[in-house]
């Protein structure tokens, strides 16, 4: 079991990869990977979790909070979930295999 210094398991920091068209282009061209993280996650905990999970060092970590949005689909109104995502910047030559 891999743990980080804040006494949280790695899976409690990183939820899942955030795979979109923009994220795919960034991963191919800029060596930047995107993950959904928990609301309590910060840059240091995300960097430690990435190091333990994928054995690569993050050069930079940027975190973005996306608010919930109101949507109207098929005659019904609702809202999307608010998420927190992290952009992980790696050195040239480092790579994360997501699949």
Tags for this entry?
99 residues; alpha+beta; Alpha-Beta Plaits; 4-stranded antiparallel beta sheet; two-stranded antiparallel ribbon; 2 helices; 6 strands; globular
**Residue ranges: pLDDT <50 for 5 or more in a row?**
none
Mean pLDDT: 89
| Tally of individual domains | 1
Q: How would you name the CATH homologous superfamily? A: RRM (RNA recognition motif) domain
Helical residue percent band: 10-25%
User: Which sequence of strands runs across the widest sheet?
Assistant: 1-2-6-3
- Assign the structural class, choosing from mainly alpha, mainly beta, alpha/beta, alpha+beta, or little secondary structure: alpha+beta
Proportion of residues in β-strands: 35-45%
Distance between the termini: 21 Å
Quick one: how many beta strands? 6
SSE arrangement, N to C: EHEHEEEE
CA-based shape: globular
Number of helices: 2
> Judging by the overall fold, what is the CATH architecture?
2-Layer Sandwich
CATH C-level name: Alpha Beta
Radius of gyration (Å): 15 Å
Can you give a write-up of this model?
- The structure is a single chain.
- This protein is an alpha+beta fold.
- The chain has a single domain, classed as Alpha-Beta Plaits.
- The protein is 21% helix and 35% strand.
- The protein has 2 helices and 6 strands; from the N terminus they run E-H-E-H-E-E-E-E.
- It has helices at 21-29, 43-54; strands at residues 14-17, 32-37, 58-66, 70-73, 76-79, 83-90.
- The strands form 2 sheets. Strands 1-2-6-3 form a 4-stranded antiparallel beta sheet. A two-stranded antiparallel ribbon has the order 4-5.
- The protein is globular.
- The mean pLDDT is 89.
